[in-house]
Design a protein that fits this description.
With 286 residues, this protein is an alpha+beta fold. The chain has seven helices and ten strands. It binds a DNA duplex (16 and 16 nucleotides) through loops.
Length: 286
DNA sequence: ATATACTCCTGCATGC
DNA sequence: TGCATGCAGGAGTATA
């Protein structure tokens, strides 16, 4: 399940390998319909073949290949996507669905067991990422801006964190980890969180994402980096998929529930429910 | 507008 | 043992 730290690890791995390389050809398994979202393969090939990759960026969970004609090839790994760099004559990857042939004898190999991943070429990067919220790790994101996103919302705080229009890059793993680090129950209505709780959450989101990057991502099942190697972050998770196991902080068994339609893991002792709707003085808009 | 349900697809764990 | 069921959870779309 590639989230921001996993996609960022892939970006860092691949950027030096693909920058300045020219795309020779594109091959896509005809059964992989989802990938091109209705765009004919020939259209995609015409967009990519002959183009030189200027840079490789990332926004939220999107990989953004900047092409030499000013356009952008956006790739989203969704749940089981992988993108690895391989010699052209290497055997196919497991569940390989597509490949991009480069001019130096290497390919970018696209694997995707469940075929949810998407590729698309856009005239501007904003077409892809314009609707995304700020990234929690953005140094320019202030605590006040962070808090404002939760104001007045009745949805569970977890659902707000997962909504890419609110914040970009968090997925199920890092949301559960951040809420544990902030000692917040995931089903707490977002608008009921105290200023102090939101301060903890602001710091926790940054910390868990930074730690995920430092550990080169979490490989619970499908994720591998740009070389095909697993990350290490799954060895350090506090609550995600630890149902029934003792909390590292207090020993209480970790519980599992469904919040916002997703499997959710939390410590019932460290993450106490909101006491009751907190009555706060009406605050003058600033 | 917001919040929720459903859908895409496949492998694997579970339970009868 | 075999087979059915449901779970995994990104995000676009549909619906209340």
């Amino acid at each position: 399940m590639p989230e921001l730290p996993e996609v960022e690890t892939i970006r860092r791995d691949l950027a030096p390998l693909v920058t300045g390389r020219t795309i020779v050809d594109v091959e896509v398994d005809p059964g992989t319909i989802h990938l091109l979202a209705g765009v004919p393969l020939e259209t995609l090939r015409a967009s990519l073949a002959g183009r030189t990759i200027r840079s490789l960026g990332r926004r939220g969970k999107y990989l953004l290949f900047e092409l030499d004609d000013g356009r952008w090839w956006a790739a989203h790994l969704r749940m089981t996507g992988r993108l690895v760099w391989r010699p052209h004559d290497a055997p196919p990857e497991p569940y390989e669905r597509a490949r991009v042939v480069l001019d130096d004898g290497h390919d970018l190999r696209w694997s995707d067991l469940r075929k949810f991943g998407t590729w698309r070429v856009h005239a501007s990067a904003d077409e892809v990422v314009g609707r995304l919220g700020p990234e929690p790790i953005d140094p320019g994101l202030t605590a006040a801006q962070f808090r404002r996103v939760f104001e007045g919302r009745t949805a569970p705080v977890k659902a707000v964190l997962l909504d890419q229009r609110r914040f970009a890059g968090l997925g199920n793993i890092y949301v559960d980890e951040a809420l544990f680090a902030a000692r917040i129950r995931p089903d707490t209505p977002a608008g009921q969180l105290s200023r102090a709780a939101l301060g903890r959450l602001y710091r926790a989101c940054r910390e868990v994402l930074e730690r995920g990057i430092a550990h080169r991502g979490a490989s619970f099942r499908d994720y591998v980096d740009g070389q095909g190697n697993e990350g290490r972050q799954h060895m350090f998770v506090q609550v995600f998929r630890r149902t029934g196991k003792p909390c590292y902080a207090c020993g209480t068994p970790i519980e599992r529930s469904i919040v916002g339609g997703r499997a959710t893991h939390y410590c019932p002792r460290c993450q106490r429910p909101a006491r009751r709707p907190q009555r706060r003085e009406a605050r003058r808009a600033g």
